[in-house]
């Protein structure tokens, strides 16, 4: 009972930290005009500001898995949250475009580990039968961050300015780094509690992970690559819509004002949050992954064709974007599958490879 209670403390702290990950990921799309005005840049340089985050995130995914598996999610999340805080402050105070690039790159390095640490914590504190549902909870945290990076960010930057907003974000990340240090535990056994291996009656999965054999095991598994390619195809659409270009696209192609466009994207974010929960729950209930992934991939394709090439009447655009956001969130299933087709000791590395 103590384990089942305290695990939510551990998970919630990292999930709240993960909100900042997606907030940073999505935020530049909303403050596009301010960034272009401040630095006197065009669309290509603006896209590079956003891309610096993803370059860093990409570079760090496999190292993040190794760190989470070798030194544990607590230390990894704590130290890299501090690094992300520093990057956010540098970005907020950047006097030049080059410093803005640097700040975004450091933020990307810092936040890159949080998702992997969440998955690792899930594998050590929660029952395996709830894997996809817990992935859905991670998606809920992600979409909360995406939600905050829409209309709330518009108002925050209107009151504080974009620079002060990002400095404040850095300070808040330091606070959550402190919470991680104080309360997060890598495994229930650190508190004298039974581990998941014992509770589920399976052989203990020791943490004596050898990096090169572990990487070879994951990378030589063809199932890892299949779900990785699916993740690429689905996640690109998710990040383009909810992140960098969703708001500008609606403003330019559908003639909406910025607040209107941000509110429309919120409909997609809410749909994505609901989808993350429902998709995981349904998959766990029917005990199948592939049919869910295939059906929603087809639905996502149809949604993109309608949205880009046909055009959706503005009156029904919120409903459409809710459903589209629901469908495109099926990329979360690839994380579940990656963990289930690889050695459970290597959950961090398996997730990192697919996320990369």
- Compute the number of helices: 18
Q: Tell me the series of helices and strands, N- to C-terminal.
A: HHHHHHHHHHHHHHHHHH
Poorly predicted parts: none
Helix content: over 70%
Shape: globular
Report on this structure.
The chain is mostly helical and 356 residues long. 81% of the residues lie in helices and 0% in strands. The chain has 18 helices and no strands.
Please give a quick description of this structure.
The chain has 356 residues and is mostly helical. It has 18 helices and no strands. It is globular, with a radius of gyration of 20 Å.
Keywords:
356 residues; mainly alpha; 18 helices; 81% helix; 0% strand; globular
List the topology elements.
Layout: H1 2-30, H2 32-39, H3 43-70, H4 73-93, H5 97-111, H6 114-125, H7 131-148, H8 151-160, H9 162-183, H10 196-199, H11 211-219, H12 222-244, H13 246-253, H14 258-286, H15 290-310, H16 317-328, H17 332-340, H18 347-355
Helix pairs in contact: 1-3, 1-6, 1-7, 1-9, 1-12, 3-4, 3-5, 3-6, 3-18, 4-5, 4-6, 4-9, 6-7, 6-18, 7-14, 7-17, 8-9, 12-17, 12-18, 13-14, 14-16, 15-16, 17-18
